[in-house]
Each structure stands twice: as structure tokens, then as C-alpha cells.
Design a protein that fits this description.
The protein has 9 helices and 8 strands.
């Protein structure tokens, strides 16, 4: 029991300024070092699952995952499936369907998923006496490499800020995160879909941003137009000679800052 909303995006569909199909060319061997998870190396990008959840609260055993969006590539198309919980009594259906969706996954992509989405899902699986394989999967959490590469560039590294600054994607009439739990409670109480539709759109945008940000991150590691970020990527990956050359290029750029602090 439950709802699954499926949306299909052609490979040429752009989220902001980034065509989604670029994520099929992710340099996962290099990104594995950025993510500090060498298990990502050698994985085909088409075997990744892009995951984002919506919950009834911010933490604790009583917090339920009522919506989980999972995107995967089928050929050049991106298929997004959103698993929606009609009410708490149907949680087993959501967890079972989500488990089947992730069964063929070779790795996960998220934004702060290591700290929030995966622990929230694991808690619900454990309370339901099921054994999730989430922790076993290689995980590219985009928050951390984006923080390192674009340190000091933005006022915040919240997803809405990063997607605007890096992807050129501006959310119009978005559902504020603070409203999400209350909208779900109203939907679960009376079944009126008008309560939950803005949350579904919010979640879909989150997942599409994961795909586009992953593609952007992969390109940034070798982007001559962003020599400072490319230098940081090489340094963090332990490629010292390349990092030195890229830092020199960044210092020579006319718009480069006078000094870059390395931490």
C-alpha cells in the first residue's frame, strides 16, 4: 500500500543551466577521492541512485520518512520515482518498495545524506525489523566536496543557495522546508492531495539538483575556467604536481584573489 509517482526526463532536459545527461559522464574514480570513498571508483554512473527524503521532523526515533525520491538513469533518460506514505500505518509498504528500488543500486548520491537521509531511513528500517543495505553502499555526499571546493564563495551551503549559484536554478513558489511536516499531517488526515503536491515538487527539485550538482562537480575538477576549484580538487585528491600547476594558474588569473589560505 502506498503511492509511487514516476516522472521521466529526457537526457537533454536542463535543470538550471545543466543538462541532466552530463551526470552519465561522472569521473567517479576522481570523485571517489573527493568523497573519501574509494568504493565509488569503477562504478558506472548509470548504477547510481540519487536520493532525497522528506520527514515529519528533524530527528529522533519518532521521526518518520513519509516521502523518498529516487532517481536513476535508464539509457539517456532520468527516471524519478517518489515513494509517498499515505499514513503511518502503511510504512512497511514504503520501506519495502524503496528497498526494491535500491536493490540494484551500486552507490548513492545525496546532499547531506550521510548525516540525515541515510540515518533517518536506517532508523525506520530497524524499527520495522528489516535490514537495510544503505550503509553498505558507496556514497557520494555532495555537500562535503562542494564545501571544500567552493569554500568562502557563498553565504551558505544550503542546497537552495548552492543550486542557485552553481546551477543557475532559481526556485519559484517553492514550499518552504518548515511547512513540509504540517502539509504532510494535513494530507495524512484528510487525503486531500492539494496539501502534498507542493512537497512533491519540492522533493523532485531536490533530486534533480543532486543529478545536476554531481555533473557540475565532476566538470569543476578539470575546469580551466575555475582554476582555484580545480586546484583544490587536485590537492584534496593528493595529486600534488597538478595541484601546484593549477594554483599557479589561479594566482595568474586577473580576477584571482591576492591570497588563498590553504587548510
Amino acid at each position: 500500500p502506498g503511492y509511487v509517482i514516476e516522472s521521466v526526463y529526457d537526457g537533454g532536459y536542463c535543470h538550471g543551466a545543466v543538462p541532466l545527461h552530463r551526470a552519465l559522464a561522472l569521473p567517479l574514480e576522481r570523485l571517489a577521492r573527493q568523497a573519501r570513498d574509494e568504493r565509488l571508483a569503477g562504478i558506472e554512473p548509470a548504477a547510481l541512485r540519487f536520493v532525497d527524503t522528506e520527514t515529519t521532523g528533524l530527528g529522533g526515533a519518532g521521526t518518520m520518512v513519509f516521502l523518498c525520491g529516487v532517481a536513476r538513469f535508464e539509457g539517456a533518460r532520468l527516471v524519478l520515482r517518489q515513494f509517498l506514505l499515505p499514513g503511518p500505518e502503511y510504512e512497511g509498504g514504503l520501506l519495502g518498495g524503496l528497498g526494491e528500488e535500491l536493490e540494484a543500486a551500486a552507490g548513492l548520491v545525496s546532499y547531506n545524506g550521510k548525516a540525515f537521509d541515510v540515518p533517518a531511513l536506517e532508523t525506520r528500517y530497524v524499527l520495522s525489523r528489516q535490514r537495510p543495505r544503505l550503509r553498505e553502499l558507496p556514497h557520494l555526499d555532495l555537500l562535503h566536496p562542494n564545501r571544500r571546493l567552493f569554500r568562502g564563495e557563498f553565504s551558505s551551503h544550503r542546497l537552495a543557495v548552492v543550486e542557485r549559484e552553481l546551477l543557475g536554478f532559481e526556485r519559484e513558489d517553492d514550499c518552504p522546508s518548515a511547512e513540509v511536516p504540517e502539509r504532510y499531517r494535513r494530507f495524512a488526515r484528510d487525503g486531500d492531495p492539494t496539501h502534498i503536491l507542493p512537497v512533491l515538487r519540492h522533493n523532485a527539485w531536490d533530486v534533480l539538483s543532486l543529478v545536476a550538482l554531481a555533473a557540475h562537480l565532476g566538470a569543476t575538477c578539470d575546469d580551466p575556467a575555475r582554476p582555484l576549484q580545480a586546484a583544490r580538487a587536485a590537492e584534496y585528491a593528493g595529486e600534488w604536481a597538478e595541484a601546484a600547476a593549477r594554483y599557479e594558474a589561479a594566482a595568474a588569473a586577473t580576477d584571482a584573489p591576492r591570497a588563498v589560505r590553504l587548510e
